[in-house]
């Protein structure tokens, strides 16, 4: 069988993910593998029509497509995302139709599910037969048991092709939004109280809903809003994955474009941030993805702590729960507060107006109160993954992260350091081995004992 591997790493041949592909090639000599370096060559692919068409011809002639990529900020990297956009923009979806597909990703399992779900859904949007995904930890290939799993995954992939196996679709096609938003400008505005408000927006077409929604939001706040257009902001390229930032947060692009200055001087000093853009396929644009990826010069340290963040989205967000989760998770992980998400998924423009007014009002109210909502698993779980790996195997090369985590007490919640609980657990576990004591605890006292500290605390209020 002939397999096309779409390499989604900006590192090209030096990709860690590609080492997994090379392993599969070594143990599957009966199959042919051709690797197309999508992410590392995206600028050339976009400009060179012959190169792009040659890749499409390779896909047409293959038996299976393996999407192989590292995780970049909840998803694939911006360069890979741009290639997916080109497939739809240039109407070459037919080349992918009825091809068998699988995905192979590498990460530390920080939101690997949202990235794999995205590729799964894109494959189905292309009418491919998606078989399965394999989400590997960065170093799984060095473990014999994990190699066995990887080999089994690929065997299942080849078996599905050999048997002409049916695939059951998991995702429904996204139906486009039809509302042509016509804002009704009113005199009713909101006092901004000297708060610094920044809107970062992907503004391309003057008449597009997103442009009108951003203008309406700005009008509601007396135009005391600075709008940064991603399409005029100087961004030379996407994150290279070079890890030069790992030592001291100094980016490869430092001084070469305007991104870092804008991020530090505008976003990091704002009180309220609004991110605005239109949905392209099942995410925002590749330009937006580039913006989020380039923020990785801060590596795994939150850089927008205490900000009020909202989103203005044009498109069918309600049909894409993974994107909703990504937006919420991004805000929670940053230590910020999600003020709300406004879309144009309404029957009438007046509903969009009301939603934008509510978002502006809530953003100002939360900013005045300095309110940060408590985090859910999305923020807490993600941060614990970072904490564990920065303490352990990734302390080097991520020296800047380790320093930040140590100075800001992020390591302090390790359960190993909770000595009172360790002593209590050990003592009570020993006592529970005695039948009479075990019965007393589990049958009579456990519910009362669990709430006793809270009752004592509440009783002492105003005492």
> What percentage of the residues does DSSP assign to strands (E)?
5-15%
- Span between termini: 77 Å
Tally of structural domains: 3
Reported CATH architecture of the largest domain: 3-Layer(aba) Sandwich
Radius of gyration: 25 Å
Total of helices: 16
- Classification by helices and strands: alpha/beta
Helix share of residues?
Answer: 40-55%
Query: Considering the protein shown, what is the CATH homologous superfamily of the largest domain?
Result: Flavodoxin domain
CATH class of the largest domain: Alpha Beta
Describe the structure.
With 463 residues, the chain is α/β, with parallel strands linked by helices. The protein has helices spanning 16-27, 42-47, 49-60, 78-89, 112-125, 144-162, 209-220, 245-248, 259-265, 286-294, 321-333, 349-369, 377-391, 399-407, 419-431, 435-459; strands spanning 2-7, 32-37, 64-70, 100-107, 129-137, 197-201, 226-229, 272-278, 308-314, 337-343. The chain starts with a strand and ends with a helix. The model has no long low-confidence stretch (mean pLDDT 95). Helix 4 packs antiparallel against helix 10 (286-294) and helix 11 (321-333) packs across helix 13 (377-391). Helix 11 links the parallel strand 9 (308-314) and strand 10. Strands 2-1-3-4-5 form a five-stranded parallel sheet, sandwiched between helices. It has three domains: 2-162, Rossmann fold (3-Layer(aba) Sandwich); 197-377, Flavodoxin domain (Rossmann fold, 3-Layer(aba) Sandwich); 431-459, no CATH class. The chain has 16 helices and ten strands. The radius of gyration is 25 Å and the shape is globular.
């Amino acid at each position: 069988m002939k397999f096309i591997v779409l390499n989604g790493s900006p590192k090209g041949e030096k990709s860690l993910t590609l080492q997994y592909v090379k392993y599969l090639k070594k143990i599957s000599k009966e199959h042919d593998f051709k690797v197309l370096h999508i992410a590392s060559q995206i600028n050339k692919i976009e400009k060179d029509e012959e190169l792009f068409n040659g890749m499409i011809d390779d896909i047409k002639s293959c038996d299976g497509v393996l999407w192989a990529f590292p995780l970049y900020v909840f998803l694939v990297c911006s360069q890979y995302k741009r290639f997916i956009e080109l497939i739809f923009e240039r109407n070459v979806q037919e080349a992918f139709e009825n091809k068998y597909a699988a995905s192979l990703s590498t990460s530390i399992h920080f939101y690997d599910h949202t990235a794999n779900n995205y590729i799964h859904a894109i494959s189905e949007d292309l009418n491919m037969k998606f078989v399965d995904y394999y989400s590997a930890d960065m170093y799984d290939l060095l473990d014999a048991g994990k190699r066995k799993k990887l080999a089994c995954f690929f065997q299942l992939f080849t078996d599905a092709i050999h048997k002409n196996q049916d695939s059951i679709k998991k995702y429904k096609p996204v139906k486009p939004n039809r509302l042509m938003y016509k804002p009704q400008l009113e005199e009713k505005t909101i006092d901004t109280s000297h708060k610094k408000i920044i809107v970062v927006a992907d503004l391309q077409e003057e008449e597009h809903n997103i442009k009108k929604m951003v203008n309406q939001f700005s009008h509601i706040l007396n135009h005391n809003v600075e709008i940064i257009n991603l399409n005029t902001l100087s961004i030379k390229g996407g994150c290279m994955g070079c890890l030069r930032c790992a030592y001291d947060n100094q980016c490869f692009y430092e001084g070469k474009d305007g991104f870092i200055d804008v991020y530090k001087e505008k976003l990091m000093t704002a009180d309220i941030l609004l991110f605005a853009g239109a949905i392209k396929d099942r995410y925002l644009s590749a330009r937006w993805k580039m913006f989020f990826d380039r923020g990785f010069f801060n590596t795994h340290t939150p850089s927008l702590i205490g900000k009020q963040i909202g989103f203005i989205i044009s498109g069918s967000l309600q049909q894409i729960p993974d994107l909703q989760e990504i937006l919420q998770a991004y805000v929670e992980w940053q230590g910020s507060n999600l003020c709300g998400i406004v879309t144009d998924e309404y029957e009438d423009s007046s509903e969009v107006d009301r939603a934008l007014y509510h978002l502006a009002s809530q953003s100002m109210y939360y900013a005045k109160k300095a309110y940060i909502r408590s985090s859910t698993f999305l923020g807490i779980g993600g941060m614990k993954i970072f904490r564990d790996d920065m303490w352990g195997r990734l302390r080097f090369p991520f020296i800047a992260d380790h320093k930040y985590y140590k100075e800001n007490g992020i390591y302090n919640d390790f359960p190993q350091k909770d000595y009172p609980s360790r002593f209590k657990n050990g003592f009570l576990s020993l006592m529970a081995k005695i039948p009479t004591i075990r019965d007393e605890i589990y049958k009579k006292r456990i519910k009362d004992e669990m709430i006793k500290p809270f009752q004592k605390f509440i009783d002492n209020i105003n005492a």
